[in-house]
Write a structure and sequence with these properties.
By secondary structure, the chain is an alpha/beta fold. Helices cover 40% and strands 16% of the residues. It has a single domain, classed as Glycosidases (TIM Barrel), CATH 3.20.20. The N and C termini lie close together (9 Å). The chain binds D-gluconic acid.
């Protein structure tokens, strides 16, 4: 395994989302979902990692782990628990948290919608309802009023593609619809429209406040997709799936165009992202499926993989995929790239350090090849609620003891902290944390 000198321009840190770590909020749709018993083992979002009460300790941890950047989300239901009613307590909380990050030299990237929203928004049909755009923009407007002077970087909506799939096709997220193709496309359209409006709104509001350093983008889940078998029909399935899962969203959120079947939207040649946020986890092998309700594709993982090639959730570990998708998307859009999520559920912490090494190695190769990768946010700072999978999967650099809520930096977390500090993966670090074993794929 070779030493790696990372570019000094690549900023390093980690990512979280409010519902997954904060606890305490009774107004979000995920609390309601917990009460309905929809989370594995009957678990609930109500305590999570208690980050809402422990953010001071958690920022100290980030600081001790040499973070330069941190991606976090604002829980909409804490800001607007009832429709049209703002909570000063919620607002003050985020102002204090963000000020503390800044005082510690950690730059925040704030996500406005990360899978969760208030119960009243859920009750009106959430993103399927056309009015969702208005309500989201009103919320975004309030957030920028309150946080705009501290935060210059925003992700409007996290993974709209995974969100609509899990909410309207797989039924794993509220409202739990299955094979609701119309819901899938309606919600997709409204999320894209909301992003486009939020992009303009955030820029114009901060400009009026006297700032010209605003950056607005998305965090899109991009999987590396291949046809399961190299046949015409499988390639077709792969391409249709790629279109409805990736391209349709990129056309909308990057280029401002609503493309088939969402409609035709005549926009200027403007770009609606200042950076391209990519969440990368795995490779998807797509198998043709004739069911239009599943968008003609069915995702599989590679069969006969060894234990070292899958994570605790059975997803294939495939760092090369990151190379291909970043290169392709950079060639297509030319936007600076933020890796807004990349990580591994690994309870025993046996694979995470190697996972980090392999993905950072790919990123440095991309930078050497002229791809403008500027940020790496590891998912995740700490163990958290993996949505309907509950607290089972352990994604944290920091381990949470859910009995005592005690935090403990894992070995891989110490490894990452060293990398954040020196931007250098030396022989010594490799020996200490990776035992000098050789990497299979890189
Ligand atoms: C996501 C999700 C995260 C998940 C992570 C691991 O953006 O998919 O944003 O909330 O926890 O991806 O599955």
């Amino acid at each position: 395994m070779k030493e790696i000198k990372l570019s000094n321009h690549l900023l390093l840190g980690s990512a979280t989302a409010a519902t997954q770590i904060e606890g305490g909020d009774k107004y979000s749709n995920w609390y309601e979902w917990s009460l309905k018993g929809k989370i594995d083992r009957g678990e609930s979002s109500i305590v999570a990692a208690d980050h809402y009460n422990r953010y001071v300790e958690d920022i100290d941890l980030m600081k001790s782990m040499n973070h330069e950047i941190y991606r976090m989300s604002i829980e909409w239901s804490r800001i607007e628990p009832k429709e049209g009613q703002w909570s000063q307590e919620g607002i003050d909380h985020y102002v204090s948290e963000i000020k503390m990050l800044l005082n510690n030299g950690i730059k925040p990237l704030v996500t406005l919608h990360h899978f969760s929203h208030p119960q009243w928004f859920e009750a009106m049909g959430q993103w399927k309802n056309k009015k969702s755009v208005f309500y989201f923009i009103r919320f975004a407007d309030k957030v920028v009023d309150e946080l705009g002077r501290y935060v210059n970087e925003y992700c409007t909506i996290n993974e709209p593609n995974v969100f609509v799939n899990d909410s309207f096709m797989d039924g794993k997220y509220p409202p739990g619809d299955k094979d609701n193709t119309i819901g899938y496309f309606k919600a997709s359209k409204h999320m894209i429209q909301a992003h486009i409006k939020a992009y303009d709104l955030i820029h114009s509001k901060r400009k009026a406040m006297g700032y010209d350093d605003t950056k607005v983008g998305i965090a899109l889940h991009i999987a590396y997709m291949e046809a399961k078998k190299n046949t015409f029909i499988n390639r077709l399935g792969r391409n249709l799936y790629d279109y409805s899962f990736h391209t349709m969203f990129l056309n909308g959120m990057v280029e401002g165009r609503l493309t088939f079947p969402l409609g035709l939207f005549n926009s200027s040649n403007k770009t609606y992202c200042d950076f391209m946020g990519i969440n990368y986890y795995s490779r998807h092998l797509v198998h043709q499926n004739l069911n239009p309700a599943s968008l003609f594709g069915e995702v599989r993982v590679e069969e006969n993989l060894h234990d070292s090639e899958v994570n605790d959730l059975g997803w294939e570990i495939y760092p090369e995929g990151l190379y291909h998708i970043l290169k392709d998307n950079y060639e297509k859009y030319g936007l600076p790239i933020y890796i807004t999520e990349n990580g591994i559920p690994d309870t025993l912490d046996k694979k995470r350090a190697k996972f980090i090494y392999d993905h950072l190695s790919v990123i440095q190769n991309l930078i050497d090849d002229g791809i403008d990768v500027q940020r790496y946010y590891h998912w995740s700072l700490m163990d958290n609620l993996e949505w309907n999978d509950g607290y089972g999967p352990r994604f944290g650099l920091v381990e949470i003891n859910y009995e005592t809520l005690e935090r403990k930096v894992r070995d891989s977390g110490h490894f990452y902290a060293e990398i954040c500090k020196s931007k250098y993966i030396s022989k010594h670090l490799i020996h200490q944390y990776l035992g000098g074993e050789t990497s299979g794929n890189i």
